[in-house]
Amino acid sequence: MQYDIKKFKDGQVAAKILEEGDLQVHIRGNSYEDLFTIAAIKEAWDAENTKSKMNTASLTIYCLIGQRSDRRFNPKESFDLKIIAHFINAMRFDTVQILHPHSAISLALIENAKALPHFPYVKKAFDAIGNPVLVSPDAGAYKTTHEIAEKLNADLVPSNKVRVKGAPQISIQGDVKGKDCLIVDDLADGGRTFTFLAAELKAQGAAKVFLYVTHAQFNYGFEELKESIDHIYCTNSFKDIEDGFVTQFTVIK
Ligand SMILES: O=P(O)(O)OC[C@H]1O[C@H](OP(=O)(O)OP(=O)(O)O)[C@H](O)[C@@H]1O
Question: Which domains does the chain have, with CATH numbers?
């Protein structure tokens, strides 16, 4: 399904449907502008499809904005993922696929949503390195990384993270001496989780430490990661990165 997006100088986005049939929207979805772009496309498509109930509309979001804000962190603060989910639900897509959501709460709040698995990209990194031990950085990552380790027949070393005044405190539950380690997580923001964990893995004798994250945001702290991590594997769900330190798997053009 072809559509055209026009952006006005004041920031307004408008859409035009260029052909008939089922609608498939593939978008990063990592900005409020993207959400309004999706809404414009769906509104234009709905206007053409009021009579035809045969056609379906599907949405694929590669990096859902606000996915970490999956609760009200403090009284009097907004619950941002709930607002975003309300907005997407109002568009009434028949299916919504979300690549590697931060938690199951995104899938619970967004109607007709299911996760698009990150397994194929972890497998590519796993094969490129050559049978590393998988490391899950925190309780949130443990469940999905455990499932991936089972599928790959790989060893898994869980670690636990608590944040003290925002700074991650790490404890590793396994032997990594002389082993190549692949940390697997959903996203890197400032990267402190991974610099601390990689430093601790190396202190415990790990040979090399690699990082896989689906959503490579690297909003700050990117250069510091080079001190303790040997190479990063990620998708381009959040942005395209040109750096020899990073291997990016393309999910969106
Ligand atoms: O690159 P960094 O800035 O270190 O952030 C990345 C980490 O933060 C997120 O978890 P978060 O601490 O938000 O998990 P939570 O939902 O359990 O609080 C994410 O799953 C990573 O583990």
Answer: 3-116 (3.40.50.2020), 119-249 (3.40.50.2020)
